[in-house]
Amino acid sequence: MASDRATSFGDGSANGFLVREADFSDAAGIAAVHVAGWRDAYREIIDADYLESLSDIRHAAMWADVLDQEIREGATFVAENAKSGIIGFADCGPERGHDDATSGEITAIYVMPEFHRRGIGHALVGTCRAWLAEAGRTSVAIWVLADNAAARQFYETLGGAESETRMIRVAGGELEEVCYRWANGNREGRATDDDAGDADNPL
After folding, report:
1. What is the mean pLDDT of residues 136-162?
2. Global confidence as pTM
C-alpha cells in the first residue's frame, strides 16, 4: 500500500523535519541511521566489537533489497530535514509470527543520536500507527531490549502496555526483549516538545 503523502513537523526553522514514505534511493541514508542508532542505543548492552563491526554498506544493501520490492506488506518511513537529510526512520507491517490479520508491528525505529528529544521518534511512531490503521491493523506491537530503559520509558510515555517477553540471540549472547502493545484507534502522529526520547529495537 504505497503512499505519496508527507507530513511536516515544526515551525519551518532548522528544528523542523518532514516524515514521508521511503523509496529505493533512501537505502544509504536509512543504513547510516540504522548503524548509528545501534551503536548509540546498545553501547552498554551489546558487545562493543560487534557494534564497531556494523557496516553502513551491508545495511544499505539490506535496505535496498527491502525498498526494491514491488509488492510489500509493510512500509518504511523516513524523517528528514533540509540541512542533514535523513535523520530517522521507522519500519512497520504485519506482526511477525502472528496469523492475525488485525495485528501490526513496528519492526524498527531509530533516530540519529544528535536529533533525540525533538519529537522525531514520536512522529515516526504516529506515522506508522496511522499507516497500520489504514491497513486494518487494530493493534500494534513493538519489541525492545529489556535493558534499554530509555526506549521502554518512551513507549510507556506513548501509552504502550507491556504484554510479554522473550529471549533472543544477538552478537553471540542471549538478551531479553519486552513487547509493548497499543490498541490502534489513534491514526494521528504528532511531534511534541516533551517527547520522552527516541526508541529502537533490533530487526
Report:
1. 95
2. 0.86
